[in-house]
Fold this protein.
Amino acid sequence: MEENRKKSVVYKMENQEYNADSLAYRHSEEYEEHTKRYERILKENRRNEKRNQQANGKINAGIDFISAAVLAVAVVALAFFMLRYLSVSSQIADMKKSVKNLNSTLSEMKSENDQAYSAVDASVDIGKVYDVAVGELGMVFPDEDHVVTYDYVEKGYVKQYQTVSGE
């Protein structure tokens, strides 16, 4: 049952206890002194809080300056890398244009080469070449005994020390 009772607030001032619920205490001089001391302590606490905020403001200003310096360095680095990226991107675009131009030039040259080959191939008559070679120049096809064969070795090479005669 004692737990259900209203607990009263007891103040201890100068080794004397005062019950806050007592009307006599509230109107006494001690209560007024206590109230003044309490207000004075509140004012001191507010002043201390202001000083702490000002001190923290100075510390924050240092941190803010450092943060601003780091941010400035980061922005400068970012700007440098962005400009470098744009420069490299521009170079890549120029190289792509150059490759396109070179590819078109290559295809034109291949086309011209194919046309020249076709013109040369059309101008040569193999039958006429055979007739001139055999009839006028006396050339003949080689017989089996005129052909000399040798074994090919991949790792080595062939060195000829004397002339090869078919006779």
Notes: The CA atoms of residues 22 and 51 lie 38 Å apart. The two ends are 143 Å apart (CA to CA). The beta strands are 10-13, 16-19. Residues 1-6 have pLDDT under 50 and may be disordered.
